[in-house]
Amino acid sequence: MPIVTIQITREGSSPGASAATAEEKAALIQGVSKLLLDVLHKPMDSTFVVIDEVETENWGRGGLPVERYRAQQRAQSSELPRRDSGGRNRLAPLVTTTTRRVGSGRRGVRRRLTVVRHQPAAGAALRKVRR
């Protein structure tokens, strides 16, 4: 008999909403129950899901009330330059996936290659991941 508790802040997910809707909560309950069925083989009818909505004034992160933390994060992100020294967009997607044929002849093996660009402060580095 698994019991899952989900804590969320009491705020809407769309403009004008003050809390999660009944449909959103039902989707959370369905999704968590299905996940426990798929991963742990727990029957859905024996899974309990509790959704606990917490007022934002009772929620904190990084040593700050969540509203001040979010304001601080917004201020920091607005200070980031949008373009690098070469004029390229710094906010472009960081992950690209390509498929290329490896081997000879018409029946070469197709491999998926994912390239993750990581941009540390000192410059850009590339890391390739094969799947």
Task: Supply the number of helical segments.
Answer: 2
Structural category: alpha+beta
Instruction: Indicate the radius of gyration in whole angstroms.
Output: 23 Å
CATH topology call of the largest domain: Macrophage Migration Inhibitory Factor
Helix content: 10-25%
Q: What is the general shape?
A: elongated
Largest sheet: 3 strands, antiparallel
Task: Indicate the low-confidence ranges by residue numbers.
Answer: 114-131
CATH class of the largest domain: Alpha Beta
| CATH-assigned homologous superfamily of the largest domain | Macrophage Migration Inhibitory Factor
Mean pLDDT: 75
First-to-last CA distance: 37 Å
Number of domains: 2
Second rung of CATH, namely the architecture of the largest domain: 2-Layer Sandwich
Give me a quick take on this structure.
With 131 residues, the protein is an alpha+beta fold.
Explain this structure to me?
The chain is an alpha+beta fold and 131 residues long. It folds into 2 domains: 3-78, Macrophage Migration Inhibitory Factor (2-Layer Sandwich); 95-130. The protein is 24% helix and 32% strand. It has helices spanning 22-40, 66-78, and strands at 3-9, 48-54, 60-61, 64-65, 95-102, 109-118, 125-130. It is elongated. The model is unreliable at 114-131 (pLDDT under 50).
